[in-house]
Write a structure and sequence with these properties.
With about 400 residues, this protein is of the alpha/beta class. The chain contains 11 helices and 15 strands. The relative contact order is 0.14.
Length: about 400
């Protein structure tokens, strides 16, 4: 009799117990490069965090279950080169609203690449970073007035101490410094950005601007930048990344050997097939994939993060490497190792990706096309465990059984 009562109580408790998980992503192919995972697994989420990643987690343990068979489940994508600071009252700003572009392409973290300098960063933080649902981080422009100002070539605006001070005061969101578009004859922009980086132990991203006999990528990679600094627009061809012979400049290989990071930074004028294809043929692959998102690139060849990732996939990178270049690699580059993975306890930032097979055309910054047979599409995005993008309503309930809260109209 005692055994019967005990069994009955155990069964009753089990039936009335609260589910362990808020959401269970079931039967997707999980790709988590940081943890060397690439196989069909389930991902359970509780309290906005990753609670468990394992095979065959019982559906009964979750409040909601989403079947993701034949789809890929990855950490939320990290785009480390965007422009999302539209100055108040500014005309012809090229920046965009982060939330308008992030989630629909699987991106949960964006890094603004130098739009704001130290003078304007407090405004950037208050109006954009602190209000966005997307996690927005920043590379601070070494020019105090920021990108697009008439002082981008003024060495007097390149105050390393002021930039470092602003970075230290906002260490939770400033992840490095940016040197961009400098057209002066010397190294003032690079030298001051690196100085700020040394004062804070943070990396520098370089959009190298114009080259000359003194300022060239050989000297940049071998003498000026430090291991861990980031060279964006690596397939632009504007700075002799590709020689006239059609070969990758030996300076690029020497830079990689020293530990320089090479980032795509597609943009509206910085990705060309005539550079990317030969580079891939020589196996000079990017370390990270980014969009250089702005109003001049979003409707042109770049389009979005997954379109750029699709280009690298079709050029010859494996799917696992493309995901690595868009998750744990950029997280490491900006010294945020807690991002870009599906570790238990990590914030549940997740992308669910479909890969279509067929005949697709991909356009570069000049408007030239290149054919590919695989296209990556975002089916679903989760930010802090909440579904923030759901292309085909996979996490939604059918309307016939949906518990509508109908309003009572009084006349």
């Amino acid at each position: 009799m005692l055994r019967t009562i005990t069994a009955f109580l155990a069964l009753t408790c089990a039936s009335t117990a609260q589910p362990l998980y808020d959401l269970l992503l079931k039967s997707g192919h999980v790709i988590d490069p940081q943890n060397n995972v690439s196989r069909v697994m389930d991902v359970a989420i509780a309290g906005g965090k990753i609670a468990r990643v394992a095979e065959n987690i019982p559906a009964s343990e979750a409040r909601k279950v989403v079947n993701l068979k034949d789809l890929y489940v990855t950490p939320g994508l990290i785009d480390i080169h965007v422009h999302v600071y539209a100055r108040c009252g500014a005309k012809n700003s090229e920046s965009v609203d982060p939330d308008a572009f992030s989630f629909r392409s699987g991106v949960t973290t964006m890094v603004d690449a130098g739009t704001a300098g130290w003078r304007e960063f407090p405004d950037f933080r208050t109006r954009v970073i602190d209000r966005a649902h997307t996690r927005v981080l920043a590379l601070l422009n070494i020019v105090g007035a920021g990108m697009g100002s008439d002082k981008e070539d003024d060495p007097a605006e390149m105050d390393a101490e002021a930039a470092a001070g602003m970075a230290k005061a906002n260490a939770d969101v400033i992840v490095g410094f940016k040197s961009a578009h400098y057209a002066g004859p010397g190294w003032e922009s690079i030298d001051n950005a690196v100085k700020a980086g040394n004062l804070t132990n943070l990396p520098v991203m370089v959009d190298f601007g114009r080259i000359n006999q003194v300022r060239n990528i050989g000297a940049l990679f071998l003498d000026k930048l430090r291991p861990g600094d980031i060279y964006t627009h690596c397939y632009s061809g504007h700075r002799q990344e590709l020689l006239e012979t059609g070969n990758v400049n030996p300076a690029m290989w020497a830079g990689r050997k020293r530990g320089i990071i090479f980032d795509v930074g597609h943009g509206g004028g910085s990705f060309y097939w005539y550079v990317a294809v030969p580079a891939y043929e020589e196996r000079f692959y990017p370390d990270s994939i980014s969009t250089d998102l702005h109003t001049g690139s979003m409707n042109a060849g770049m389009k979005d993060m997954l379109n750029v990732m699709s280009k690298c996939l079709n050029l010859g990178s494996s799917l696992e490497e493309v995901i690595r270049m868009s998750t744990c690699n950029p997280a490491k580059e900006i010294k945020r190792p807690q991002l870009g993975n599906l570790n238990v306890g990590a914030e549940a930032d997740i992308a669910v990706i479909r890969i279509d097979s067929g005949s697709f055309g991909f356009v570069d910054s000049a408007g030239a096309s290149n054919a590919g047979n695989r296209l990556m599409i975002c089916e679903m995005t989760l930010r802090k465990g909440a579904v923030v993008w759901d292309l085909n309503g996979r996490a939604s309930e059918a309307w016939k059984t949906f518990p509508y809260q109908k309003e009572s109209w009084k006349h």
